[in-house]
Design a protein that fits this description.
This protein is an all-beta fold. The protein has no helices and ten strands. Pfam families: PepX_C.
């Protein structure tokens, strides 16, 4: 079970309205974000959860990326602080039935220790960092931005509703 929405100062939560029918998610969930930070590099972590009618939240999938390896790059990229860049976080395959009247919740943060190691917020290999620094991340969404959650095959009551 997960803590409540916005459970830490560095976590932002987005919650849907209650679902009108059960939905089965089959495949990889992808989250696209337009982001920026005041650091030379940082991590972005996304959790997709089901919030039941009683308010209990359960993790469906979690994913992470860094600005240095955004876009699935195999080679470290540079990042200029305070610029807006797109990132994409593709999560592992899942088969999950989200119950009628549940809500979807998306948590976005820059740290999910101890599941993932702490990012130093400096460019370079995090495992070799000698110090950490605080940083300020921003998520850009709405008109003119491509931030979105993309669900794979969705089925409701046995019928497919989209990719």
């Amino acid at each position: 079970m997960q803590p409540g929405p916005d459970y830490r100062e560095d976590v932002v939560s987005f919650c849907s309205r209650p679902l009108k029918e059960s939905i089965t998610v089959l495949g990889k969930i992808r989250v696209n974000l337009d982001v920026g930070t005041d650091a030379e590099d940082t991590a972005f972590v996304v959790k997709v959860m089901e919030v039941m009618e009683d308010g209990k939240a359960y993790n469906i999938r979690t994913g992470i990326t860094t600005l240095g390896y955004r876009g699935g790059s195999k080679k470290r990229q540079t990042y200029t602080p305070h610029t807006i860049v797109p990132i994409s976080i593709e999560m592992w395959d899942v088969a999950w039935k989200i119950q009628k009247n549940s809500r979807l919740r998306i948590d976005i943060t820059s740290s999910d220790f101890p599941q993932y190691c702490v990012h130093s917020n400096y460019a370079g290999c995090w495992a070799q960092a000698r110090q950490n620094k605080d940083s300020c991340q921003k998520i850009y969404f709405g008109k003119g931005h491509s931030s979105s959650v993309v669900f794979p095959k969705l089925e409701t009551d046995g019928s497919r509703v989209g990719d």
